Amino acid sequence: MIVTSIFVEDQDKALEFYSETLGFVKKHDVPSGEFRWITLVSPGEQDGTELVLEPNDHPAAKEYQKKLFEDGIPVTMFGVEDINAEYKRLKEKGVKFTMAPTDAGAVIIAVFDDTCGNLIQIAQMK
Q1: Residue 65 confidence (pLDDT)
Q2: Cα separation, 9 vs 66, whole angstroms
Q3: Which domain holds residue 98?
Q4: 3-class secondary structure, 68
Q5: What are the distances in angstroms from CA 53 to CA 8, 43, 64, 109?
Q6: How far apart are CA 11 and CA 90, in angstroms?
Q7: CATH number of 28's domain
Q8: CA separation for the pair 115, 125 (Å, rounded)
Q9: Is residue 1's pLDDT more than 90?
Q10: I need a labelling partner for 89 at 20 to 30 A (CA). Which of 50, 96, 113, 115 fits?
Q11: Best CA proximity match to 38, nearest among 28, 48, 49, 47
Q12: How many domains in the chain?
């Protein structure tokens, strides 16, 4: 199993956004102390890398998340096949972008607010 984590302010809100808005598929949702072990996967690669919705309960996690957001730095990047179609789809679902699709050399990138304390970048290879 390969996982990557994203700190989130509210696990329920994050689960809803990442599954219903972005289209990830919930793989695990298991109680773990006062929080839960929640992982999601790409619908096209359900045995691939799992995205952990990690509670930002630790003060260092809160500060890290807050500073990256304030400085406009995305916490991670997701690859997409057609960035313009994905940008349009997400905008229609009410997602707020801080950067529209922008040519960045070998890739086209866009950045949005995940409503859970993070900026997320999507990228399409040229």
Answers
A1: 96
A2: 10
A3: 3-125
A4: helix
A5: 6, 17, 15, 23
A6: 20
A7: 3.10.180.10
A8: 26
A9: no
A10: 50
A11: 28
A12: 1
Token readout for 29 is 């949702």
Which residue is listed with tokens 């619908």? 43
Beta strands in 42-95, from DSSP E residues, in sequence order: 50-55, 76-79
Q: What's the CA gap between 112 and 78, in Å, rounded?
A: 11
How many C-beta atoms surround the C-beta of residue 79 within 10 A? 12
Q: What's the pLDDT tens digit per position in 37-59?
A: 999 999 999 999 999 999 999 99
Q: What percent of the chain has pLDDT over 90?
A: 98
pTM score, whole prediction: 0.93
**Rounded to whole angstroms, how far apart are CA atoms 41 and 28?**
9
Are 63 and 7 in contact, with CB atoms under 8 Å apart? no
Residue 5 CB contacts under 8 Å (≥ 6 apart), including other chains: 51, 52, 53, 54
